[in-house]
Amino acid sequence: MWNDNDWQALAQHAQRCGSRILLDIIDSEPGRAQDMSMKLGPLYFNYARQHYDAEAISDLLVRLENSGIQQQTRALFDGEKLNKSENRAVLHSALRSNLSDAPAAQEAHSHALEVLGRIEQVIERFRKAGVTDVISVGIGGSDLGPRLALNALADFSSDEFRVHFLSSADGFYLERYMAALDPSKTAVLLVSKSFNTQETLINGEALKAWLNDPSRVYAITANSAKAQAFDVLPDNVLSIWDWVGGRFSVWSAVALPTILGIGMANFREFLCGAADMDAHFLNTPVQDNIVAWQALTSIWNRNALGFANQAIIPYDERLEMLPDHLQQVLMESLGKSVRMDGSDCEHATSPVLMGASGNPSQHSFFQYLQQGIGIVPIDFIGVVKSSHCQAQNHHFILANLLAQAQSLANGQGSDDPQKRYPGNRPSTVILIDELTPYALGMLLAFYEHSVFVQSKIWGINAFDQWGVELGKQIATTLMPYVEKSRTDTESLDAVTQELLQRMLAG
Ligand code: F6P
Fold first, then answer.
1. Which of 57, 143, 240, 249 could make an SS bond with 138 (beta carbons 3.0 to 4.6 A apart)?
2. Ligand 1 atom, smallest distance to 221 CA
3. pTM, to two decimals
4. What is the spatial distance between Cα 445 and Cα 97, in angstroms, rounded to a whole number?
C-alpha cells in the first residue's frame, strides 16, 4: 500500500502537470510518442497522450517498485491467501501458466490441466449424442468472459455447435430458447461457481424440466454437492475451485461455451496469450512492465487528476462486449471504500467504467467525451489487420480511432464557443496486430493484473465482492410478497410498501 510520502509526491506531480496543457507537455518532450509506448507480442500500447510528464511517471514507477509490488505479485502467483476476507488464494494465473514452484500453485495448475482433458471428453459426448445447440446458463463472471471471448473470436468458430447464453432471470430469453430449440438435441450448461446464484437456479430449473433428460445437463461449479442435489449427474460436473474468482474464471471450464465454439486448440492459444502476459508481469522490472504503466495511469487519472470515470472504447465490433466484461473485472474488484485492514480508504478507488464499440458511440455519447464538463480518460483499442475483405470499411474505422484520440487531446479553438473543442483529454491507444485467441488472452490478462496492482496501491482486497450480497438477501425476503404468499407488509419500509402495492395492482 502506498504511504503518505507516495501520495504527497503524486499530489505534487499533479500540481505541476495539471497546470500545463497536455499538448504542451507532449511538445516539450521530444521522442515521447515512442518513449511512452511499448510493443509486447501482438499488442502495442501508447501512453503519450496521458496527462503526465516523464518526471511524474518515472517517479511513480520507482515508488511502485519501492512499495513492494514485485513481492506481492510473487505472493499472488505462489497462491498465498491474498483474498483475506474469504481466506482464499487467488490463482487464476495457474489456469494458464505454470510460473510458480509453490505447492499450492503447482496443485492448482495440475487440476486445471486435468479439467481441460475432461472438457474434451464432454465435447466428444455432445458429438455422439447429436447435440446441435448448447444453452449456457450463468451470470456475471459465469457469463461475461466466455460470451466476450466467443464473440471476439467468432472468426475461429467452427459452427459445430450453436451456443446460446442465458444470464438474466427475466423469462424473455428463456421462453424464446425453449420455443426455438429442440430439447432432444440441446445440452444445458449450468455455470455457477457457488451453485447458489438464484438467477442461474431459476433458469436452470425451467430448462431441466424442458430438457427432461439429465444426461445432457452439465454443471460447471466449485460446489459439486449442490449441483448433484440439483440432479446433475456426478459425471456431468466439471470443477472449478474456490481459488478462481468468478470474474477471473474465463480461463477455466467456465469457458466451455467458448471452447464449444472455437475448439480446444484455439482455447489453448488463448491461455498461452494470457500465460505470456503473466510471465511479463511477474518477471519484468517495474519500469518496463506494461501492467505497471497501465495501473499507474489509472491511479494517476483517478487520484492525481480526480477523474471519476474511465472509458474502454474498442474500434472493432468483435470486442463489443469488452467494456461489459471489464466493468465487472474492474468495478467488482475495486469498487471498495474500506481497506484490507478494515480502515476507510483515504483516496478515491475505482472509477466508473463505461464504454461501447467506438464507431457507433461516436454518434451517441462522444459529444460528452469531447465537450462535456467531466473528463473521461479513454483506452482506445484498435485491431490493425481486419478479418474481413472490406478494406475501405476497415480504413475508415482506423482513421476514426486516430481522429478521436487526436481531437480529444489537442482540441480546436473557435470564435464560436459552441464550436470550441477544449482538448486536454487523455487517452491510451492499444493496437492489436490481429484479433487472435492469443492476442485476446494477453489483453484480458493485462487488464486483470492492472486491477491487482491498483488494489495493492490502495490497500484494498480486489478479490471479494461483499457489496453484492445485501441486495440478494433482501430480494429473497421480498419474493414472498411479490408472489403474494405473504401480505404483512407493515414491517417493510414505506417506499418499498408503496412500490409493492403499485406492482401488485398491475
Ligand atoms: O453476485 C456477484 C457474483 O458472485 C459474481 O462475483 C459472480 O461472477 C456472479 O455473481 C456469479 O456467481 P456464480 O458463478 O457463483 O453463480
1. 143
2. 14
3. 0.98
4. 11
